[in-house]
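User: I'm new to structure prediction. If I give you an amino acid sequence, what do you actually give back? Let's try with this one:
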Amino acid sequence: MAERFLPGSANSQPGALSHEQLTAILGGVPHGIVGIDLTGHILFANQAAANLHGYSGPDEMNGLAAEPLLAALRVTDEAGEPLPWEALPLQRALHTWQAQQRLVRLPPGAASSERWIILKAQPIPGTPPGTQMVLLVLQDVTALKLAEQERDAWMQTLAHDLKTPLTAIRGYAQLAVRNIAARDRQGALTDLERVVKASDRLTKMVEQLGDLTRIQTQGGLQLRVRPCNMVELVQRAVELAQASTTLHRLRLELLVDSLIIPADAERLERVFENLLSNAIKYSPEGGDIDVRAGQNEPGLAYASITDAGIGISQEDMARIFVRFGRGRNVGKIDGSGIGLSFCQAVVHAHGGQIHLESQPAKGTRVTVRFPLLEPASVGDAMSDGAPWERFHLPLTSD
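Assistant: Good question. You get back a string of structure tokens that encode the predicted 3D arrangement of the chain. For your 398 residues, that looks like this:
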């Protein structure tokens, strides 16, 4: 066995780090780090490496053979095929004395889910002779890999969602051309109206995606805020939603005639359209959808949308407001997973709240609340055409 050259040991070079200093430095590194001598035995490790291998402390790993430890991790390649010892970066680095790197998977264990790890093996020359070693770094990139998989899945869904209105636009435009050629003016007008509706849907999807991108890159939305009547926004959204379905009956209950709030009317109307669209989409069997608007708390306006659709499990409640997140029970129902995250961002940017209650197979209720304008503020704003800046709300990064 090669001579062990450890910091703080009798054969340390003058000025070398002590064992305590090395432990403190390595302990602050989030990745697993293991020093391995030329015989394949562990010289030192940090706490992250100990945690990965199931040890309470890094000193418990000193002197152990690295091969059985790595074998116990049941490392596989990206496709899930088991990797032999000879294919791992550590063994290859010991054999070739060149840096090696590979992305591997660790299958789920009793107390952990599947993990993705980058194994990096870097040969370290030593002085005096016989003190060479290989530094093995185990970098957990599970979060990055899951984000990459989520992005790829979302891109596929988005491509499908964008293709649907584009296909409709092309199809209706072709029908309009044929009807014009056949001098069927009414038929052509009907087809062109459908083209406009499909293009409007496409425009809204692109604008929504742009808003989410701005939230992520700029930390918030630049709202064009002015006093508006939330009751009117809800009414318009309900009318549009009802026109889009014959399977559902939207029942609107307005408890007051007017709810004046400071809002970006265009974006807020898109919030109500999104929530109603979800209620329709996730009630594939049809049925009643109840919409209410009123004031049940001092200084707050509210609107609620209740459906009797497929519902959402408690396990999925935490992820549906995350961008690209969807319930696992949606099956083949189309969707990109950006609607609720957009709604939450816009509601929060208005200083509002959004709350969701749901039970699988029973339905969902979404409630949004917004601060009302004081009566004096409303009067001033309506009388002098006050600029939006007077009612501008702070940006948020939600």
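You can read the tokens as a compact description of the fold. Here is one thing that stands out. The radius of gyration is 30 Å.
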